[in-house]
Design goal:
It contains 9 helices and 18 strands.
Length: about 325
């Protein structure tokens, strides 16, 4: 089957002869998934979960209705609505649908910024004074078994809102880890969720935790589990949707993951400069995604570095990042 994920008939035709259908991106035809469910195909996560997560406004309302901590927000239909809510600024405007990897997100600092605002239904989120951004990988099986991975720290490129570096496990306090894990369990239980889920969170400078958003699939914040955990997010997802016992989520060593992103000023057939040198570093694992064409800030792969020592893992990862460049011919 070769067509758009958003095409209802394509999604239905793909899954109609399957026992289990899952997703690796949430931008999939919900109606196609519903048709499969109506015919007895196991869709995991369910079409209802995908429908909720496709719309950031529905996500935020779900958090609010279930007392899941999240930043203050307003739902707006057009940028003119911002003029009636100037006291809510500074804030982030996020398109309700189809935004990802920093796309469909922009900061509205003051009244003068309103002209650049999106003219589409959006979530307006009150700015949080963030101390740490982190993610909690969570898995829930069709049997109801739940496991939660240790939180991982996330560091983003300023201005592009795309993940640069991830460190696992985090250096969050025991109290924050305990609370974040409790929130993660609450989310997957309330959704009757099946599969792996990444729950992105903020810790503000006063120590409060906020849930940012949900990813109903294997996620960029879980790639380090391939080498760095006893059970990778992919293996865990398969176990969860198949009703098999869930695996050990513990990290083996300190692990750092660096995204390989297309360099500014380069578009076209991809070239990986410095790849051979990076592969000589002990404890470094390179994953290239097989994309033939690069463009600025496109995710082209990732590097995972493992070490018994956190500082050593960070140092090697940053050295590898400086050595390899994603350019074009």
């Amino acid at each position: 089957v070769n067509n758009s994920f958003n095409d209802e008939d394509t999604v239905y035709d793909f899954g109609k002869d399957c026992d289990i259908v899952t997703v690796e991106i949430e931008h999939v035809s919900v109606n196609g998934l519903k048709r499969l469910e109506a015919e007895g195909v196991c869709v995991a996560p369910s079409s209802a979960v995908i429908e909720l997560i496709q719309d950031k406004g529905l996500q935020k309302n779900f958090f609010k209705a279930n007392n899941i901590p999240t930043s203050d927000f307003l739902l707006i239909n057009e940028k003119a609505d911002l003029k009636n809510n100037l006291d809510f600024l500074p804030a982030f405007q996020k398109l309700r649908r189809e935004g990802y990897d920093g796309r469909g997100v922009q900061k509205i600092r003051k009244q003068e910024d309103i002209e650049k605002a999106f003219e589409k239904p959006s979530v307006l989120e009150k700015q949080v004074d963030i101390a740490v951004e982190f993610s909690v990988l969570s898995a829930r099986s069709t049997t109801g078994e739940v496991i939660i991975y240790e939180p991982v720290e996330m560091h983003f490129h300023e201005g592009h809102n795309i993940l640069d570096k991830l460190i696992a496990p985090s250096e969050l306090s025991k109290e924050v880890i305990k609370k974040s894990r409790e929130i993660a369990v609450q989310v997957v239980e309330l959704l009757d969720y099946h599969g792996i889920m990444a729950i992105e969170m903020f810790l503000d400078k006063s120590g409060e935790i906020y849930v940012n958003e949900l990813a109903p699939r294997p996620h960029n914040s879980g790639h380090q589990t391939i080498e760095g955990a006893y059970t990778s997010q992919y293996d865990q997802h398969f176990r969860a949707i198949s009703g098999l016992p869930l695996g050990n989520p513990d990290f083996i060593w300190h692990t750092v993951m660096i995204n390989l992103l297309g360099e500014e000023g380069h578009s076209g057939e991809v070239v990986y400069e410095g790849l051979a040198e990076v592969l000589k570093i002990q404890g470094v694992f390179v994953h290239l995604y097989g994309k033939k064409l690069t463009r600025p800030w496109r995710k082209m792969g990732h590097i995972t570095v493992m070490s018994e020592n956190r500082e050593d893992a960070v140092k090697k990862a940053e050295m590898a990042r400086d050595m390899i460049k994603v350019t074009s011919k």
